[in-house]
Amino acid sequence: MTADASLPLDDYLRVLRQEIDDALAAVLPASPACPADIAEAMRYSVLAGGKRFRPILTLAAAGAVAPRSSTAKALAMPAACAIELIHTYSLIHDDLPAMDNDTLRRGRPTLHVVYGDGMAILAGDGLLAEAFALLARAPVEGSDAAIAGRKLAVIRRIADAAGSTGMVGGQAIDLRASGHVHDAGALDADALRDMHARKTGALIRASAVSGAIMAGGSPGVVAAVDDYAASLGLAFQIVDDILDVVGEGGALGKTVGKDAAAGKPTYPALFGLTRSRQLASEAVDLAVAALARAELRDSRLCDIAHWIGSRSS
Amino acid sequence: MTADASLPLDDYLRVLRQEIDDALAAVLPASPACPADIAEAMRYSVLAGGKRFRPILTLAAAGAVAPRSSTAKALAMPAACAIELIHTYSLIHDDLPAMDNDTLRRGRPTLHVVYGDGMAILAGDGLLAEAFALLARAPVEGSDAAIAGRKLAVIRRIADAAGSTGMVGGQAIDLRASGHVHDAGALDADALRDMHARKTGALIRASAVSGAIMAGGSPGVVAAVDDYAASLGLAFQIVDDILDVVGEGGALGKTVGKDAAAGKPTYPALFGLTRSRQLASEAVDLAVAALARAELRDSRLCDIAHWIGSRSS
To answer: All domains of chain B, ordered by start, with CATH?
Structure first.
């Protein structure tokens, strides 16, 4: 079964998720190339399941940009996997006692609870490095110059998203702001948006953009996909904040009410639930409008925007 | 003053060190592109000085492979800086309480002592990501296809050195072995060598190889430089272990006797000081022999091997 355009969205997502899981299992280093315990720790976190939202976005963007290409998915899959490795690394480090001190993730004890803080730091480091090794490896079409250029553009984009101007910077803002939501130094709406744009938005944008670049999208198409993903990332974050208030731990697989308990700034805390839902819906509309500008309205990217806006886990 | 071949070695190293320091200061992200505290934390560690051994090796290898090229150094400098960022990230993470719990580095309090564990983890993460962003950025000669291929090869090599088969794997072995040197599970000579080959050897090899690749070295020349650096890395580690026993804290800028106190496996602990000095000298000889095979005997790489063998800090 391939994830073609005729499938219902749920089936399309399920098929892609399986393909991504298989690809991730194949790219993770194993003993004896790396020591057994670090290999186990990396697998424990990466293969714990999860929505695979970011790599799905990469593959969907590649499919949207090059719907008739037989190689677009193969070209985009290493980037999709690399992005999921980076997402997983960030969860491992964010969960550490020195950061958010979370003990439950994807329905299982967090990595540092099982393997200790030192191994959890190392497993995260290893996943971040492995992501770039994967991105730089020989592409399916050999050493074609155009493909090499695309790969370098994708590495640059993903590294910027992961680094101190992106995810690391966002987590640094979060670290400082946590526990201070009622203080004079708490984040206002603009600062909250900036934090999320770095912490989750940057990698979501890089996910979609990487797929578009690997599939050979023109600069204009890549820019439209980037705008789409910026709005999608905002919707994703607002819904995430809402689910932290109204969701159920079982379905989410993580600690619920954690943000509020830690005094973290959230959309419901700043705007209330009703206005937060409205803001999420507006962001989905903006994402769809960006697709329309690049004539990508009739693609899976559009379905994914509506899925993100309405998800309950 | 340029670091040309006619300078005495000390002057050559000093000039290169200054060029590297200047380049590092220019490539580190600054506020407002990234939050001020994470920018400060990254600068605190990277600009604390240090021997700059690895980036010097990168530039010296580029100079050895293409002695008459006016662009070899410019092509190799981003790789040299990226490698120093990765080296610094690894020091920050290794010094954490969850790892080696060290409080003094390059003559100053370690990063987590000053900024806290969370910010230290993030600063390390940010440096690792920034290294790859730097490696992927447009090279000096534009989007030349040959240069793009070299850059991808260098990214692959450096990412592998940093990852779970390299530095991360080595630190995982070290983490497990620390405090158990007298136990049945302690590392023997082969295991100690494997740990160091991953923990310090892999990045030292990648440093030299990256310079050789960026300067356009043939596969045979790159392989000889790799062999040279493998022996050089071994010599470097043995001398490091010796200095931990006989060195002075002031000159080294770090805690002396720390390895022995932590019960860490070291060359002097396994072989004694006299035999350790002999092993270091043999490794230097092997490094020079590898250079001779590629007709690189008359290059700075040879001087650097002797410098590493005889260093006292």
So the answer is: 20-310 (1.10.600.10)
